[in-house]
Task: structure prediction
Amino acid sequence: DAKTTQPTSMDCAEGRAANLPCNHSTISGNEYVYWYRQIHSQGPQYIIHGLKNNETNEMASLIITEDRKSSTLILPHATLRDTAVYYCIVRVDAGGTSYGKLTFGQGTILTVHP
Amino acid sequence: ETGVTQTPRHLVMGMTNKKSLKCEQHLGHNAMYWYKQSAKKPLELMFVYNFKEQTENNSVPSRFSPECPNSSHLFLHLHTLQPEDSALYLCASSLQGASTDTQYFGPGTRLTVL
Result:
């Protein structure tokens, strides 16, 4: 699976949009971009994933650049409960040799402040 | 609630004890995973079960022994652990064979080995 690069930490004011970047310049054509988050001492929570089109769900939006070498997770209206470590993971989905594997890095510590 | 439960949530054991961690998923998934998260380290995949068959053992010491009696339950049997085995143990499940096999995590078991 391709490696990802994320900033170590970011701050965001409550109520503002939080934009979390991720670089994955070695991504392959059949690799998806996944985002998870982990609130302190809890299990990781799935947020969103995409291949090449932008995606939106009730939690967040995922913007993937046209060359697929980077992406941005957007939390449109951050709350204090969004304070967590956010992981950007690139992995092959159904049928790939790394099927089922999620390789977690250090992630970005997002702190939402009042 | 992700549909994946883990018990106990906290466990303290001595190095000579034998204990078991339990994971149950209510999502109709067919694959289950054990991950380990040590302090200030990324999550590490330990074991993967697909349709009750172990498909991955990520060089885990034999003092950790997984068991998957059916596709809804997963156990991790522990014996003669070391203090460095103290960590958060996370269970996850997914639907392999679907168009996307997103993994959903349980809340974890916080294990302390004295």
Q: What stands out?
A: Chain A touches chain B through 20 residues (CB under 8 Å). The mean pLDDT of chain A is 91. The radius of gyration of chain A is 14 Å.
